[in-house]
Write the structure tokens for this entry.
Amino acid sequence: MIYDLIILGAGPAGITAAVYAARKRLNFMVVTRDIGGQAAISGDIENYTGYQFITGPDLAKKFADHLKQFSFPLKEGEAVRQVKKLADKAFKVITDQGEYEGKALIVATGKIPRPLRVPGEAKFKNRGVSYCATCDGPLFAGKSVAVIGGGNSALDAALSLAKIAKQVYLVNINPRFTGDPIMEEKLRAADNVVILNGANTLKINGDKFVTGIEVKIGGETKTLPVQGVFVEAGLTPNSAFIEFVDKNKAGEIEVNCATETSEPGVFAAGDVTTVPDKQIIIAAGEGSKAALRAFRYLAELK
Ligand SMILES: Cc1cc2nc3c(=O)[nH]c(=O)nc-3n(C[C@H](O)[C@H](O)[C@H](O)COP(=O)(O)OP(=O)(O)OC[C@H]3O[C@@H](n4cnc5c(N)ncnc54)[C@H](O)[C@@H]3O)c2cc1C
């Protein structure tokens, strides 16, 4: 069985691509580790048009409901390991559970959090060290936590944690934040948030669980007494499984404004691509473009 189209990933980009593919009556399938992607772990979302406010999990649920209106093979909980090019203008997708062939692909596998790579991080993972404030924040109610990072994800995590934790230290290696000023203003107004700009995280301490972190700030080493450490140090694209398309140095798949990659028949959308600015609405828009472009490619395929 050769599908017309295989969509890899079901975050905002992959889900939107699937909705468009279903409406175009393509013979397609979706293979994905989870449904919702990063949107499902985002905190408060205030910039998805049509919703002045919605939580990440609620928006992801709406996306999933929309997706599941359609009938098509959905391989959830499956990880793509490798994509191969076949001789006859087709592709093979090899996962941890099977193999699938398609005439066209949409890669929408997004990004995953980048580790800090400091002593103690691996040892205390899930024992105080977390990569998801939305998922693990409630475990730290009334406790002290550190958020490491200075972009929108870090500011978002610090804002959600400030509502739960006793004390939040926001540890940013750079002298200024790169996240949205409106979020920074909200954080500065919170009385339980301490902002440490220009602070380098050296080490995570603990016994059974995290007990603190060591940071270097202004030439001085300080220990912050925290029970939770939320790593928000950027993201890495999930693109290692496909080697035959052009990527930039960061591993993002190069696309043109029509979501086409360097390989005819392979389209890419959302955070995994070189499209600047990683946002839910952008990923969803790119996903719709990729499906429409794949539809046209398939119609013209000899
Ligand atoms: C904490 C946080 C807060 C955020 N807040 C906002 C916000 O307020 N507003 C906003 O617009 N954006 C926000 N974002 C960014 C937004 O979530 C992303 O830009 C968006 O989710 C990207 O969508 P995507 O579909 O490209 O990728 P992702 O959401 O990363 O989805 C990728 C999908 O691919 C799957 N996948 C990955 N690798 C594989 C593999 N090897 N095999 C199979 N499946 C795979 C994943 O399981 C997932 O389903 C936030 C992100 C984070 C982390």
Observations:
- The mean pLDDT is 96.
- The longest strand covers residues 2-10.
